[in-house]
Predict the 3D structure of the following.
Amino acid sequence: MSDIQQNLFSAEEMRQAEKSNVSQQQGPVTCLGMEFENDEARRAYFREELRKKLPELRKIEGFPIGEDDDIINLSDPPYYTACPNPWLNVFIAEWEEEKEQLLKEGKRKVDFEVKEPYASDVSEGKNNPIYNAHSYHTKVPHPAIMRYILHYTQPGDIIYDGFAGTGMVGVAASKCAHPESLSLIQSKSETKLFGRRHAICGDLSPYASFISYIYNTPVNPQIFENKANEIIDEVEKELGWMYETKHINGQKGIINFVVWSDVFLCPNCGKEIVYYNEGVDNENKVINESFPCPHCNKTLTKKELERCKISVFDKSLQKTVLQTKCVPVLIKYTTPDGKRHEKKPDAFDLELISRIQSMDVPFWFPTDKMMNKDGRWGEQWRTFHEGMNNVHHFFTKRNLYIAAALYSKTIGKGVLNAMMTSYLVNIGSRMARYKMGKSGNVNMPGTLYVASATAEQNLFNGYRGKIKDFVKAFSTENKGIVNVASASHSLLDNNSVDYIFTDPPFGDNIMYSELNFIQESWLRVKTHNQEEAIMSPFYNKGISEYYGLMYHCFLDYYRVLKPGRWITIEFSNTRAAVWNAIQRALQSVGFVIASVSSIDKKQSSYNAVTSTTAVKQDLVITCYKPTDELTNKLALNNSNKDSVWDFITEHLAHLPVHLERGNATTTVVERSPKILYDRLISYYVQHGYQIPMDAQEFQAGLRERFIERDGMYFTAPQAAEYEEKRKHTSDFVPMGLIVSDEANGIEWLKLQLREPKTYQEISPEWMQAVNGLKKGDVLPELKDILEENFIEDETGHWHVPDLEKQIDLEKLKHKSLMKEFNLYKEMAQKPRARIKEVRVEALREGFKQCFKDKDFATILLLGDKIPQNILTEDEVLLQYYDIAQMRS
């Protein structure tokens, strides 16, 4: 056996590996008040402590799948644990003490308070070294996160992300101590905000958390580069012959990659067809939609073909498996003079492949069965490959052999191990698609797709390129606390963190546990996906289950966040039902939404979102946790109408005063009467309080107590600030409402009728504005909406009514809506009745009345009879339905 061959990793081998860990400090270190000779001693001590705690930690929901030794070996405690981290609150106690010293040094403010959400354009590209070093399914560039951290926190503050992914929140927190952060601070007078924040990053995925640990661990780039190249050179010296080929003159060449093609059977003649030879037009760099069979000349499409199957004895599994036949069809290589060439595999190449296929791999590699259920593949499987049911089947024998050899030299070495996972699956596996004439043969993001023409990469070349990427990304400054944990079951104490920035899963967009399965098999610790907040019919998780999972995660966020502090949620999903589930979950646990914005990364614009049914961009949801003073006051006096104005006063204090788009002032949607009333209703309903006033009385109270400017409401000091800032802009941009339902239509008409108009003037614009109506939602005729909500004068012009007349109209409208609601109620009581179309405004009015009357049974009855998209896509109906379910 060679000097690099090892089959299992013993405890002694792990200890030896730690001695060359490039992220460790060789001199004396202090950790949590204890002195250690060096990092190796610190790591050894805390690993033993972690081992003692594992039996209790295993009882926590979301604990990863893995043996004790594998969890311990992957961890670098107390800074990183491949399981829930039992030292989180010890770190927090230490950081709270540090705040006192920062105050003395003038680096913190005693009276620091953030009243308004971050309200500036956010535009950050993904082309930075940290973002690119290690790929992952979703990431927010850390400079974008820094902008939020610098706004909501001050040096020494504690930031938390329970859906941390690759730990960009931790990187951003550390980078706030870097001079680059000065350019991101909105006000130059706030330069004291420059300084490190402390971050705690958690994620359910061991793979994501491991990457997060690498990014949030101090690393000496030069030491890493030297050690990584040393390992690659050592393995290449012994196994480099596996990538050799022969040039036409017999000269040795080094393979860059080999193209492999699936083999199919012709449905007409039954003979074999090499897909690459017939289906790929390599000269024109296109895939042929149809092609003739080379044997019988019948015109075929790929869909008509059947894969050719072969029986292969799998020594690792000690059994015969049936697999799709694949053959090498093209080799791209480089000769010693540096010139690139390509050729079809010859006798030398085929003999080399045959030789490697017959060899036993003397190193450990994962053979885990893929994450299937009842013999079926999960959500991320996009094509069928017979026999690819185990992790090692995703690699050619050559790349599996070399990957296992490299892995044997990097296991237990932290960042070196991360280098392995960064390249191995996305580019070094059979998922790397051959891209004709294009640079980079990479996998298809977001799936475990194996194409019919794949590129077997030279791993040595690939890893040398990755070393350069990592060297650019690593820093000796980055330092955060990382653990593998469910966001719904953190070990953090109540009211212990100062700010939360989080990027949760987007419903059914990405199945993280499936996509991470291969990498986690190499790490030997896997995601326990019962707690995974996704939507998937395969795992019996629909919108209700997704909402429940997100509810519990946000409930824990609410618990650990200090009162009066902020949470920012970055979110991306095109489905209104998923978007509503996120908003419902946030409001259900007690958060109050202060701002919903979209980030247009291409156009660098910051747009207010006014329709929850048209989510087409990444969104930033800003919420705050109410102060204890307000929470206690409302709990004691919620039936008192004055409590409404206590809530609105605090809420207005948390909204942006002025937003600019270019040189124009734009509407702060959250300051409109409708949205203010919606937030009030949501808070009262979610807390089980009776709503003490209707919309008309609420709007009358707004006019009496607050100042209206441009359709928005302000406190007196805010109004003065708004007017001053408004002077310096050239124009005003009103709310760009889309009429997606009746409520939005009424708000749209209020804006249009600031200057009276006739029906004929309004109608063409109305038809253009109507867009995105939900299936099953009945929108009344424009004439009916005008008659119910506005006043027509003797000249035929429609006006926004004055307060007294509006109250009269609302009373009449209430009677009309309740009459319609009672018709739906009668229909729903009939056996097997289904209501296909409804007027959503009538349902909202009826549900509100049922809530007031404590008639929860009617809410549930109608909620189950109406179209489910109407229920799941309407935030108002859903909140009443949820409460009815809990109260029934």
The CA atoms of residues 664 and 731 lie 5 Å apart. The two ends are 70 Å apart (CA to CA). Confidence is low (pLDDT under 50) at residues 1-20, 600-616. Residues 803-828 form the longest helix (26 residues).
